[in-house]
Amino acid sequence: MGKPIIGVTMGDxxxxxxxxCVKALASAEIQKIANCLVIGDRRFxxxxxxxxxxxxxEINSIKKVSEAxxxxxxxxxxxxxxxxxxxxxxxxxxxxxxxxxxxxxxKAIDLAQTKEIYAIVTAPINKEAIHxxxxxxxxxxxxxxxxxxxxxxAMMFVSDPLWVILATTHLPLREVSRHLTKNKILKTIQLAxxxxxxxxxxxxxxxxxxxxxxxGEGGIFGKEEIKIIKPAIDEAKKLGINxxxxxxxxxxxxxxKSGMFDIVVAMYHDQGLIPLKLLAxxxxxxxxxxxxxxxxxxxxxxxxxxxxxxxxxxxxxxxAIKVAAHFSKSK
Length: 331
Fold this sequence. Notes:
Layout: E1 5-9, H1 17-25, H2 28-33, E2 35-40, H3 42-52, E3 58-62, E4 74-79, H4 95-113, E5 119-122, H5 127-132, H6 140-148, E6 154-158, E7 163-166, H7 176-179, H8 182-200, E8 206-209, H9 224-238, E9 243-247, H10 249-257, E10 263-266, H11 269-280, E11 285-289, E12 294-297, H12 315-330
Parallel strand pairs: 1-2, 1-5, 2-4, 3-4, 5-12, 7-10, 8-9, 8-10
Antiparallel strand pairs: 6-7, 6-11, 11-12
Helix pairs in contact: 1-3, 4-6, 8-9
């Protein structure tokens, strides 16, 4: 296949999304591997160019994918014309910015479902802003799952030193235990197995973290390993999946980095994300597995504290585009 067409959502207009979008799409490295277009607002992309001091790049405002130029001196934007710079202030949480960000995502989903784009890459949104706009979702992942009616999905994070997949996503820590079930953990193991088998062309070695210190120490520090996690692992083994655990959370990530496992199943968000970001900050990519199309994302937030200063680092977005392009080859 030729270069895949990838839709990049601009994210929250008040954040660093427009800046990292123009920096990434102006890069020859990205232009070489994919035909990217931004789904956003031309006015904020032009502001992103100005802030980033990028010259000799034209913003090509289009209404349909077929109008894209995909040329080195052009950034194509499927312009929803929904973010008024007079009403949306940089670095500020607002209902208008939250509404615009969700509209970019919904348009990208429409294009992916009609196969006009091959993958979606998302710049960051602000959860408080989308809640102000009336969207009661925890983030991109939950919107994508709801729109595509996907029941079995997970957040997977990809980096050179470590791959992680989460059994639960954005939950208060005190609620993690009651949301963990044998079926949820089994489905997460299966998604990891299916995704890596397709992408790498071989059965992966999967390590499953415990929830409690020392993976419960035989039930002394908690019963979840005995009652929930181990039964899920045993069931996965019966399905022919190469999986081990539960392994103490303070050891499993070192073991994975050392090559014992291809991916770690983490029980909750920070259990998996702290070691990942320690090893690969700005270089890890969020992949939503289980969807009917490819979706990757940056591993950072909207950067309201640095927006407008020209400091925004596009590396995570570039890595997300690279992963989307790579996954497109194995789809």
